[in-house]
Amino acid sequence: MTVVATHICRQASRTATRRMIIPMTTQVIITQVITIITMTITTTSIVVTTITTAIPMLMTTSKPTRPRRRAEVEADSVNDDAARTPDSRSVMQPNESAALYRLMTWLSPSFPVGAFSYSSGIEWAVEAGDIRDAASLRDWLVSMLADGSGFCDGVFLAHAHRAASCLDDHALRDIAELASAFVPSRERYLETSAQGRAFIDIVSAAWNCDGLDRLVSHCDGAIVYPVAVGLVSAAHAIPLAPTMHAFLHALTSNWISAGARLVPLGQTDSQRVLALLEPIVVSTGARALEASLDDLGSSTFRADLASLRHEIQYTRLFRS
After folding, report:
1. pLDDT of res. 31
2. 0.90 exceeded by the pTM?
């Protein structure tokens, strides 16, 4: 019995072992199959991705290259130069720098033409009560710029500049004579002729150039200030437009300086008046550049009377 029992136990143990081995073997096989399938899918995905990427490249390289047009090459060259060089708008040419330097010097209050000693009749207008404060000074100067001596001086400057640039000696002489005759009073004539003479003398001594003396010699008699500025700037090949605006700015600044001393005004109020007159200066300069000699005329009768009455004022700080 013991032997039989032992044999039965052995058979049972073998059967159980076979049952355990079969499931484990199946599990290993399934795991391997899954691994193979996963690797196959991954490989297939890589191949598909490679093919998808390569097809456009093959299609692109297979197309013939279009020759570049000359305009495209030149445009690329300009862009490359612009990228390598500074902005052209921020760089002044040597002739532009020289012109700006000379205009800033010649029309500066420190340039010794004696402008500080003349008021163009503003001294009498202050005494008469026409100019009392910053607002009334501004109104007075608006009229002088737009409808009086400011506009007329601008016209004379423009025509003198053009005549000198064209070496038209006959026209330059006529313009100089007309500008001298156009001054409304003896004191205003003294003011503009003295400044014109001083301007030419100083420029000739310190900034002389070829042709300047010849142009001056063709102007018979006195050369008033705006004609002198136009003639000299043309001799130095300085463009007319910036010369015009620099001249009118200097003229307005000198008038405001006289008013500031006479009213009196503070520095801040004086700068406010100058800022408010900016559009008037710009528009007057633009009109003067386009005007002919037939457009000359003045309607500032009160300012003309002020320049006439100034010479009989009881007390005076200025020469006009």
Report:
1. 55
2. no
